[in-house]
Write a structure and sequence with these properties.
By secondary structure, this protein is an alpha+beta fold. Helices cover 33% and strands 30% of the residues. Strands 1-2-4-3 form a 4-stranded antiparallel β-sheet, covered by helices on one side. Helix 1 (8-28) runs antiparallel to helix 2 (61-71).
Length: 96
């Protein structure tokens, strides 16, 4: 995903966000609901950065708030059912 970003400042910012989540997820996700789940990252139209956790069994508000704190800037979260047993949890970070 970062391979398609050519702006060095934006590339660093996205890399920092990924590192913050990777480094702090164990602290904010004590029940391991997000850790080890498939995760994708993508930049949408150069305007937003989307982080999507798939196959999440459940999520609590404290875990969502913890990830938002790790991201460290304005971001939004949505949770939607993926199957009868799992959720998709998306975090969207405005880049502008």
């Amino acid at each position: 995903m970062l391979d398609t970003v050519t702006d060095p400042e934006l590339r660093k910012r996205l890399s920092d966000i990924q590192d913050q989540i990777r480094g702090g997820l164990s602290r904010v996700d004590p029940h391991r609901r997000l850790q080890g789940r498939p995760v994708t990252h993508r930049v949408i139209s150069g305007q937003t950065f989307e982080i999507v956790f798939s196959e999440v069994p459940r999520i609590d508000e404290t875990e969502v708030l913890g990830v938002k704190k790790l991201i460290g800037q304005l971001c939004f979260c949505s949770v939607s059912p993926a199957t009868a047993e799992t959720l998709t949890v998306s975090f969207v970070v405005p880049l502008k």
